[in-house]
Amino acid sequence: MTDLPIGRAFAVLAERSPDAVAVRDGDDVWTRRRLEDDTNRLARAWSDRVGVDDVVTVVLPSGIDLVRACVAAWKLGATPQPLAPTLDVAERQAVLDLTGPALVIDASLGEVDGDPRPLPDAVASSWKAPTSSGSTGRPKVVRAAAPATVDLDRPVAPFVPRHAVQLVASPLFHAAPFVYAMRGLMTGHELVLMPTFEPAEWLRLVERRRVTWSVLVPATMHRVHRLGPDALAAADVSSLEQVLHLGARCPAWLKRAWIDWLGPERVVEVYAGTESQGVAMITGEEWLAHPGSVGRGCGGTRFRVARPDGEDCAPGERGEILMRRDHPTYSYVGAEPTVRDGWHTLGDVGYLDAEGFLYVEDRLADVVTTGGTVVYPADVEGVLEAHPDVRACVVVPADDDRLGQVVHAVVETDADLADLERWAAERLAPERRPRSWQRVTERLRPDTGKVNRSRWRPSADG
Question: Looking at the predicted structure, is the pLDDT value of residue 136 above 50?
């Protein structure tokens, strides 16, 4: 089958399997026919306000209403823009000023009456326009270059299965979960939505709903692992064909723990940004042969690692990771991309080995330079999060008169800090050990794994 308008794809899926489950939101079950008829009614209700290439901004919690709103937007040829309801008023208004949406959906949709018949086909020139905040806390709009079309009979990516019961374990209003859930939904996946991530509930849903595929981040992988070996051994994950993880560097000890639990054939990793200007993938088997790597380029991606003068680094030499694909993938609204001679960057530092496998150390802007030594926060965080009483850790630089910067660790834990200092001293070189600590009880990392590091950096006055 050739590419169809996304709105038409939902109609075809409903015709093929009207009683198949499209989405489960708790006990609320939406079949393909129910989703098709409902979103046709929604689209008709909005048709006097929304047209082709308009933006529909969806500011809703992760749930069925968010899904309904996006599907209805595609049926009108509009571009859905998922926006986190947790943004403050100023951030939200800044995004709305950039995109000028034709419609903002920020309240429950309720029941909709009207004509359930399909609308005429319409195709937006961009299928999504999410925001990307990364670790800066400042959202920017990323407009996909791909139009709102889909081939129902072709995998959307090498690492996305054609058929799956997909457990959506991260908020749908964030970029990566949105892509994998919606691309899955429009090609026949059954979605099982989790409004908030709880590790025991994730295991329960895998068993109860016979989940075959789920996307996680290291932060949520860590929370599942912390349930302990007895809970993991008792869990029925026999239906689970694969877990895909992405979004942050995964500590080697945590990756090995998941491979030991599920087997290498069921653990796959992807490295990419919201912009999709470069994508790498690695299987569990490949990772065991190249531990620490995020894989090699896929989907037409090429990677190179460059020195500050722009020359290519030798294999194993660290530098800035640059990437390009054989087709454009995005444009910014209200911002300029960082492109060097046609090569894009996420601002990450890493290296390539002799076989072309990519290794990511950290974000260049996040490194701590202490007494001339570069410290990658992910290295320190991985060691501290291996402590059995540390739920999460964020490492940032603290200013120091003698060394320039030193390592400051913010830890989500009930452990005694003296115990953590001993733990660090036994496992980290002196320059990598935290010189100052902050203990918190609030959740450091949300379900997306992203963190605003500037919030945790100590002020100059202490």
Answer: no
